[in-house]
Amino acid sequence: MTDITIHKGITYAERETGEMKLDLYVPKSENPPLVVYMHGGGWITETRSNIPDPERYAAEWDYAIASVSYRLQAVPDGADVEGMSDPANPTPRGTFPDHFVDVKAGIRWLRAHADEYGFDAERIAAWGSSAGGHLALLAGVVDEVTDLGDAFTEEVEKTVVPEEAGTVQAVISWYGVADLTLTDDAEGVIPLLMGGPQSEYPDRYAQASPVSHVTSQSPPTLLMHGREDEVVDIEHSRRFFDTMDDVGVNAIRYELHDLNHVWSENIEDIESERVAMDLLGADPNHAQSVYEATHVEQGRSPDSLLPDLPPAGPETIRQFLDRTIK
């Protein structure tokens, strides 16, 4: 197993509400690619420690892994989701699109400091779970924060190493939110995130949806989702996959039969992303279906993203990263 150098609590941005930090795990190998992880937690809770064993997978995969904090959604007193927010969470807060602004700032900062920490600035993948999956997908299909759209123009600004690119070369989404327009709730997390219901802010819902920004230049994407997910409906991943297929971008989608959010079997048993990989790998023979969109230029042979089609788990991610950014 490769030795790992760990850098914890690196400040990558100064915000009015506090310092934004990241943790970085770098294998002692020659210029490894980088995976940037965004944690789940409904955009309003959890911290960058909510990640599946980064020291282990940095070593086993031979990839640098960064877990990036992003500003969590501010929750006003009396909000119907107030009970989900942990007052003791030290992560600074803001309002959307601050979350996305921070993710892109973290990617740009990491690219600017690649030589200092010893990884490859040109080979970067975004990986996220649930709300973090939304941010990872958005990071993949929106090159820069200023491209998000007119609905957020006044709030979006590049201040952290703006000369660097915020692009990524591959994306992994675990049960990520891909299309906010699927939500018509008047209350809840997403109306809080968007500042109100979709009927009042249709442009915000559309522009904050990764599926709205997919183009033929979007990076290849691995989507993994449980068919029984009661928190983020599997239709999010299906719709994103179909859109990528329509524009000719390679993508692969795993559907885990009978699994709920965070790879639990029941919504009452949902745990954190810290143990998600263990849950996912607990039964490698768990029923699952795999859908692949492989697009080929005329005169060339198909090049599958996952030629071996391993069961969903760490080997799936490693093979996908090896095919896309190694």
UniProtKB/TrEMBL annotation:
Q: Where is the BD-FAE-like domain?
A: 22-74, 95-242
Write down the InterPro entries for this protein, in alphabetical order.
AB_hydrolase_fold, BD-FAE-like_dom, GDXG_lipolytic_enzyme
Please indicate if the UniProt record lists Hydrolase as a keyword: yes
Instruction: Give GO terms: molecular function aspect only.
Output: hydrolase activity
Question: Which Pfam families does the protein's record reference?
Answer: BD-FAE
* UniProt KW Lipoprotein keyword: no
State the UniProt keywords alphabetically.
Hydrolase
> What name does the UniProt record give this protein?
Alpha/beta hydrolase
